[in-house]
Amino acid sequence: MRAALYDRLGPAGEVLRVREVDRPEPGPGEVRVRVHVSGVNPTDWKSRSGATARPIDEFQIPHHDGAGIIDAVGDGVDPGRIGERVWVWMAAAGRRWGTAAEWTVVPQDAAVRLPGPVSFDLGASLGVPAMTAHRCLFADGPAEGRNVLVAGGAGAVGHFAIELAKWAGARVVSTVSSKEKAELAAAAGADLVVNYTDPGALDQIRAFAPRMDRIVEVALGPNLQLDLALSGPETVIACYAADGPDPVLPVRACMTANVTIRFMLLYGVPAPALRQAVTDITAALEAGALTGLPVHRFALDDIVAAHEAVEGRAVGKVVVGLA
User: Fold this and answer.
1) Per-residue pLDDT averaged across 78-87, rounded?
2) pLDDT digits over 147-180, tens only?
3) Are residues 22 and 71 located together in one domain of the fold?
4) 231-241 burial, b if ≥16 CB within 10 A, otherwise e?
């Protein structure tokens, strides 16, 4: 099969290449998926570049997320799953068979039935972003009736955080940095969208709700002052990214707010929470509550450009088409 891969860490243009490798066979408890679309996330280029280096088993096919059709199953897996449309999550976690290839092999639970009307593009966009959003929103209980602030509502995690929060019955405000991004956050369903560079941003949010119950945070360092101004004894700030400078923690201000700050990285989320995320994301898909961001599509031969687009913070979702 054709696959994008790397066998050493470094810049995309220096280490990524497309070559023929043996098509993998599913082992016990595994399924093989004919990949139609592979989703690209920041975690993929960070692992490839060495920013968050992980061991390489001879070679690494990147990308955790994808969508396609199961065409073979291993021992212990229901043969009836052959032909099933699925979305795939965490394919490359501790494994060489990421989704940037014509086929991937994953544990059967990591290939989740994709409802019939849902496109492969949307299926390949779920995985890391939607499951991260789910953990940030629901790790501390239901969101129904809660006030939720989503920082960076035009990003992939922010997009699904808005949609999952609305699906769960929350009131949602999102912060963005441009008109283009504001339109995306509004389209996702945010009740209020605020440009955080506006001097009156805090007042606009306080007029919507004086206190937030959940804050889904992409940049804790730059945004902590705003977050604390909107926090109280039941507020949880859930931080899922480490871009930008680390915050200097104002301990007294955090104590005064009685705020809880939760840090999360999907690789370490407990298995029961991951299973619940899969269940809830599938239910939201079936309810028509999840949509995709604008797609930037690349061919497999353009894998370097795809990685560079994500690394350059392209607005929208970068995917690689394989079928």
Assistant:
1) 98
2) 999 999 999 999 999 999 999 999 999 999 999 9
3) yes
4) beeebbbbbbb
